[in-house]
Amino acid sequence: MARIRDIAKVCRSKNAGPFQLTIDVAFDDPALFRKVKATGVLCAPLFARLYGVQEKDILFTVYDAGYAFKATLPRLTSAGDIGDTDVYGAQQHAPLLDVDIPV
């Protein structure tokens, strides 16, 4: 098992407008990307569980050409709203960092 923090080249989040968040996980090794993809661990149900949103509200995409996974999901607090602690959505990838991948 390996954690995403240890095997991904990039794991980041950012706003996709004030009401959505995009999370990217990218690899620089094509063989490792294919192994991660084959596990099926990175998927919409994982993001739903980690971020407390409904699976139907997640747009999950695998970008084979870029060795990357992308998930766009609704923010629980709109960017800049009262109670928002990360207006740019730049620290929201943290729950993914400890996800184990059986590679």
Topology diagram in text:
Blueprint: E1 2-3, H1 4-7, E2 10-15, E3 20-26, H2 30-39, H3 44-51, E4 59-63, E5 68-74, E6 100-101
Antiparallel strand pairs: 1-6, 2-3, 3-5, 4-5
Structure description:
Helix content is 21%, strand content 28%. The protein has 3 helices and 6 strands. The strands form 2 sheets. It has a 4-stranded antiparallel β-sheet, with helices on one face. The mean pLDDT is 97.
What's the short story on this structure?
It is built from three helices and six strands, in the order βαββααβββ.
Provide key terms for this protein:
single chain, 103 residues, alpha+beta, two-stranded antiparallel ribbon, 6 strands, 28% strand
Strand order of the biggest β-sheet:
2-3-5-4
Q: Return the average pLDDT rounded to an integer.
A: 97
Number of helices: 3
Main β-sheet description: 4 strands, antiparallel
Q: Please give the radius of gyration in angstroms.
A: 13 Å
Rough shape? Answer: elongated
Q: What is the rounded distance between the termini?
A: 6 Å
The helix-and-strand class reads alpha+beta
The share of residues in helices is 10-25%
Given as residue ranges, the uncertain stretches (5+ residues, pLDDT < 50) are none
Q: Give the strand tally.
A: 6
Q: Note the run of SSEs as H and E.
A: EHEEHHEEE
Strand content: 25-35%
